[in-house]
Design goal:
It is built from 11 helices and 12 strands. Helix 2 runs parallel beside helix 3, helix 2 packs across helix 4 and helix 8 runs antiparallel to helix 9.
């Protein structure tokens, strides 16, 4: 039996700067995002076939497609992102591909980009026997998701997944620069012990929110540009607080980031999300923020350790659902396995 080529790519949390990583924004004012990967992943399994059929199966949604690797790729709305990855890597052999992720699309954790980077990395390792440079992989994933498939969004997700760990990612008009944060273990543990991840119970289509955000940014009479510029500044402030071990101040900064994000695009929250956030703050959380493009998905909170259970119990009564997580230092990984 032919061995499997497997890959996994982490999901991510964005602390500050999200929105400034959209090309239309950073081409004009520059961008910066403080982002970290967590120990929740997208998984890909690839095995060569003896014919020319590409069989792709999503274990999460229980859907599958099959088509010829030597014919035209059938873009019909079913697993099109995965098909685009196969086409991007110029695969001309039959493959069995299975996909699985630990968060749904629209969760605010970068799950779509995580899946794409894992699949592209796996296909590259299968066809070349080598690992792809993280900058090259991030750009290829961006091209597939944002350019080829025309899914609106920024660039932070692809870079976070490919590099792993805590990074300040700076978006300049002509280049992108990733600066890893070497946090002391006690700082990392303290941060992890104070953070909470709460699912709002629903996901959202981020493309619509991104398009509206870009339109608001271009409106000279609105507040979106000021909110975006402040979010960019907060990414640098958050980085400095973490490096200095000022965890309490970092927690309060998250609240300011949440407010700036709502100024950037009021559609990132709604009445229910605001009720969860406001209640957590009333119970003692220092701060928090809606993750990703907002409109649903996950909220992150930063709360005193002795108040976390109280926050959790109350928000669960309101309909929130909490997930455990830890930070992880690694980006995309690939390996071979003989085990089904």
């Amino acid at each position: 039996m032919k061995p499997f080529l497997r890959a996994k790519s982490p999901l991510r949390l964005s602390f500050a700067g999200g929105g400034s990583d959209i090309e239309a924004v950073y081409k004009e004012i520059g961008g910066a995002v403080l982002v970290a990967t967590i120990n929740k992943y997208s998984y890909v399994s690839i095995r060569p076939r003896d014919d020319d059929q590409v069989h792709i199966r999503s274990l999460d949604f229980n859907v599958e497609v099959e088509y010829s690797a030597t014919g035209e790729t059938p873009y019909d709305g079913v697993l099109d992102l995965a098909k685009a990855c196969v086409e991007e890597m110029s695969v001309r052999q039959g493959l069995d591909i299975s996909l699985q992720t630990e968060a749904p699309p629209g969760s605010g954790l970068g799950s779509s980009s995580s899946m794409i980077t894992a699949l592209l990395a796996g296909l590259h390792a299968l066809t070349t026997g080598r690992h792809m440079d993280p900058y090259e992989l991030a750009e290829k994933a961006y091209d597939v998701e944002r350019v080829k498939m025309k899914i609106s969004g920024g660039r932070q997700d692809q870079y976070a997944c490919c590099f792993g760990g805590f990074n300040l990612v700076e978006f300049h008009p002509d280049n992108i620069e990733v600066t890893p944060l070497r946090l002391r273990p006690e700082i990392l543990n303290d941060l992890e012990s104070h953070c909470m991840l709460c699912f709002t119970g629903r996901t959202r289509l981020s493309a619509n929110l991104i398009d509206k955000q870009v339109a608001a940014f271009r409106d000279p009479g609105g507040s979106s540009r000021a909110g975006t510029e402040r979010l960019k500044e907060l990414a640098y402030e958050a980085k400095n607080l973490l490096l200095r071990g000022k965890i309490t101040e970092f927690g309060h900064l998250l609240h300011e980031a949440h407010q700036a994000k709502k100024k950037m695009n009021p559609l990132v929250t709604d009445e229910f999300i605001d009720s969860l956030y406001d209640e957590a703050r009333r119970l003692g959380a220092f701060g928090g923020k809606i993750l990703g493009a907002g409109g649903g998905g996950y909220l992150m909170f930063f709360a005193p350790i002795d108040l976390k259970q109280l926050v959790r119990e109350k928000l669960e009564q309101m309909g929130g659902r909490f997930a455990t997580f830890g930070f992880c230092p690694d980006g995309v990984q690939t390996w071979t396995s003989a085990c089904p």
